[in-house]
Amino acid sequence: MHNLKDLIIWKKAMQLATIIYSITDKFPKDEKYGIVSQMRRCAVSIASNIAEGAGRESKKEFLNFLSISSGSSYDLETQLYISEDLEYINKEKLTEAMNLLEEIQKMNYTLPKKLGEMLK
Q: Which whole-number Å values give the CA distances from 60 to 6, 85, 113, in the listed order?
């Protein structure tokens, strides 16, 4: 079991979720149950799966939840690009979200490798 509040990846995922909520708050109202809902669920899923994995008893379980979190991060990345194409999001906000998302994706790539080495 890992101390959640010490995990930098979780802190960054929480920050990303807050940014996504702020960004999507300005989307057209008719997207409330469309891309807004999907983006928010993905952002929350990233942080939540990191948290759930950190709370599990085994490193193997943690790896599984990190994998789910990683999938949600790429889902969110796609939705951010779609939002840009639809002109729902400006370049500045897109860059802010993408930079943080990329950091999380990189961390989510290296952390499982470290955990995997510990399993050997």
A: 20, 38, 11
Domain count, the chain: 1
What six digits make up the tokens of 65?
A: 């939840």
Helix (H, G, I), strand (E, B) or coil at 27: coil
Does residue 9 carry a pLDDT above 80?
yes
Section 88-101 average pLDDT: 95
**What CATH code is carried by the domain that includes residue 61?**
1.20.1440.60
pLDDT in tens, 25-53: 999 999 999 999 999 999 999 999 999 99
Residues with Cβ < 8 Å from 18, sequence gap 6 or more?
none
